[in-house]
């Protein structure tokens, strides 16, 4: 079997610090390299659509929740790991471009909602389709069963580390 870049890095560590070499190091380095490749795909596709990765994340999150495609800014920020300042900037740009609307909650004036505009729904769908198609192309050289098995294995690792979906808590 051919060696990957991580095999070479691990081999270099075997002499100076053999105690750091093992499956945790290998998994971490491979996830890091794969994440970098996937982040590049997102950057390329979002730039082609005139959006930033953060804008893509917001549009995607709003589209994913289904009609009326609305979330609170705090839900967006926490789900996307953005600061309140970061989410405010992203929301401002998306609102200026007519892709989202912001409105106060009629039942609680302290609560604001962000929702996809009529124009934002198809825009969100278009960019989500572009990014997922590019991700599929990224994995096209690997057998589908291998990709599925890797996804399942990583799910198990994340669950073991406590990354549990809210509804399963």
UniProtKB/TrEMBL annotation:
The gene is tamR. This is MarR family transcriptional regulator TamR. Gene3D superfamilies: Winged helix-like DNA-binding domain superfamily/Winged helix DNA-binding domain (1.10.10.10). InterPro entries: HTH_MarR-typ (IPR000835), MarR/SlyA-like (IPR039422), WH-like_DNA-bd_sf (IPR036388), WH_DNA-bd_sf (IPR036390). It comes from Dactylosporangium salmoneum. It comes from the Bacteria. Residues 24-163 form the HTH marR-type domain. Pfam families: MarR_2.
């Amino acid at each position: 079997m051919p060696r990957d870049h991580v095999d070479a890095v691990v081999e270099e560590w075997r002499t100076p610090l053999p105690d750091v070499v093992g499956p945790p190091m290998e998994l971490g380095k491979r996830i890091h390299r794969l994440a970098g490749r996937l982040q590049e795909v997102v950057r390329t596709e979002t730039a082609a659509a005139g959006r930033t990765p953060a804008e893509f994340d917001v549009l995607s999150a709003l589209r994913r929740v289904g009609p009326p495609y609305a979330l609170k800014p705090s839900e967006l920020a926490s789900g996307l790991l953005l600061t309140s300042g970061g989410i405010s900037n992203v929301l401002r740009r998306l609102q200026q471009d007519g892709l989202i609307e912001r409105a106060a909650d009629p039942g609680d004036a302290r609560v604001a909602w962000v929702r996809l505009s009529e124009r934002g729904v198809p825009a969100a769908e278009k960019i989500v389709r572009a990014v997922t198609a590019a991700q599929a192309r990224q994995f096209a050289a690997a057998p589908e069963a291998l990709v599925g098995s890797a996804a399942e294995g990583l799910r198990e690792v994340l669950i073991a580390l406590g990354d549990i979906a809210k509804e399963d808590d």
